[in-house]
Amino acid sequence: MLIAESGSTKTEWVLIDTHGKEAMRFETSGFNVYIQKLEQIMLIMDSEVFSLLKGRRVDNIFFYGASCSSVENVNRMHAAISTFFPDAHIEINHDILAAARALFGEEKGIAAILGTGSNSVVYDGKTIVDDVPSVGYVMGDEGSGGYLGKRLLRDYIYGILPGDISKKIDDTYHLSKDEILSAIYRGINPNKWLATFAKFIGDNIHEEYCKRIVKESFTDFFEYHIKPYQKYKSWPLSAVGSVGFYFKDILQQVSEEYGFALKDVIQKPVDGLVKYHLGQL
User: Taking the model in full, what pTM does it have?
Assistant: First the structure.
């Protein structure tokens, strides 16, 4: 059994043997089927996945992807994987279901993704029963690494950053306005690139500006992605993703302000997914 949890930044793979033991764990590039063409996806599958697993028997593949929400995207991802594993049973699901299963197993709750991108759903222990539509990094992704990077660079270009933070960006990245705009509007994975600046914010979280934009980012996330779930307010809320994990204290604060009880925050869902699928055997 091969389990994969994929975001735009990276994909984590775990191979489970016939005895239910972990046989291999590895990391590859991320997949964003909205942006990547089939040829790009297959190139990653060939060079980073199949090359490692060549000669190994794979009967079942459970792939969870950040962009696998439409039939078209699911079919494209399925076509790429089945090319290399034609005899395997393959299931493609959205990464928000991965978050729900990893966080709650067969229990109910509100699951939030706060990584490169962001999303949320209400999960009844079996299926997604409510959600807020995702509009992607251009129009949405509130609370995500990409959203934080967008806010930081916007303020940097506008010249409204505190002087010491602006200087740190100059010294660290040496970016011009044209280089920033080129990366965002003409880059291959602009959301992934924007999300890399979340680390800079984390490294400088002692600065009042950085604390403020993280809180405002999470406030926007709750306003658009959690507040609509008022009738599920008694259900536990848990989050998955590096942004939620590393800024957990601020996430907890915003959660309390909105009256939701934050239960767990985990960085990676793949271990929970392994436990879930072993339990389904």
Answer: 0.81
Tens-digit pLDDT string for the chain (281 aa): 999 998 777 899 999 998 989 999 999 988 877 777 888 889 988 999 999 898 888 999 999 987 787 888 899 899 999 999 999 999 999 888 999 999 999 999 999 999 888 989 999 999 999 999 888 778 888 999 999 999 999 999 999 999 999 999 999 999 999 999 999 998 878 888 999 999 999 999 999 999 999 999 999 999 999 999 999 999 999 999 999 999 999 999 999 999 998 999 999 888 889 999 998 87
Where in the sequence is the domain holding 73, given as residue range(s)? 2-99+270-280
Answer yes or no: is 83 within a domain. yes
* CATH code of the domain containing 36: 3.30.420.40
Report the domain count for the chain: 1
The HSE-up count of residue 177 (CA atoms within 13 Å, CB side) is: 6
